[in-house]
Amino acid sequence: MKTTMFYENDYDGAQSTGAGSESMLRVDVRLFLRFLSILFFLLFLTVPPAVSAAEHSFSEDANAVEAAADSVFMLEVYSSRAQKIGVGSGFVAFDSSLLVTNYHVIDGGAYVVAISDDYAQSIVTEVCAYDRSKDIAILRFDNSAGSAPLEMDAQSTLKRSQKVVAIGSPAGLMNTISIGNISAFYRNDGKDWIQFTAPISAGSSGGALLSDEGKVIGMTTATYTSAQNVNMAVKAKDIVTLYDRWDGRTTVRMGSVTGGGSSAYPSIPAATSPGMGADNGTTVYVTSSGSRYHNNPSCSRMKNPIEMDLLDAIERGYEPCGKCYK
Ligand SMILES: [Zn+2]
Fold first, then answer.
1. Which of 251, 267, 268, 253 has the alpha carbon at shortest distance from 309?
2. What is the mean pLDDT of the chain?
3. How far apart are the C-alpha atoms of 224 and 219, rounded to whole Å?
4. 303 C-alpha vs ligand 1 centroid, how far in Å?
5. Ligand 1 centre and the CA of 308: distance in Å?
6. pTM score
């Protein structure tokens, strides 16, 4: 019998004592084991393994999402003439004085007003590091709201279907939360994007894309305008790489790094994406010495059109022509 085995193994030395105390011990051990078996049965009934997994679900923990939103800012971008030229998003990462956003959000801007979840405002003029081709900028600011840095996850293996939470300010609607999943991974030369379904819009650029563990896995950056919920995020890995290249001290003024371009949200005009039988729309037209890509090969703002893949054009720093793309 199991109870006896248990008793003998554990109370080996006690067997040489009197018969009375031995049988008392036996009874106690049996009662104890019965108690244990009932306890385990109850535990099994009340705590199925799935529940412990759900405890780590960031997307279902409204308080945790609210706390993360405290670290996401709405960015109003102003020109040197103090005209508001755009709205974007940014999030605190690495250090409470650093704000991560998309390069295209600050492009053309002289300064940014960062507005916290509880409407504290900071003026941001310093750029620590930026990468135009990967569309990342790391800004330094006076974090008067005292928001904590969000944890970056550049290590985890991401999987299609995994849940994501996007926090940003689509259409300037402050810190909007949306939930979706990773749809695919999009690679093109040096660019490594996460394709996801959590709805975003213009103004979401620079927002945080969090995993279901509440860590930043990407930055919400772009969408395909003629598709539904085909959205792209810059990977956290690329943001961490840029941060690691920064010396930790030097900053430059925002206006000095910008190309004077538009801070328009990079709506990708084509409904197609590679591997999905891309047909029309992925080809754009450029002039080798120009800075704009065109939708129309006979656009009057371009001479001697050269065909180019849209994403190649974006990667090389071309911006949409104001005439072809409105
Ligand atoms: Zn054009």
1. 268
2. 79
3. 16
4. 10
5. 14
6. 0.65
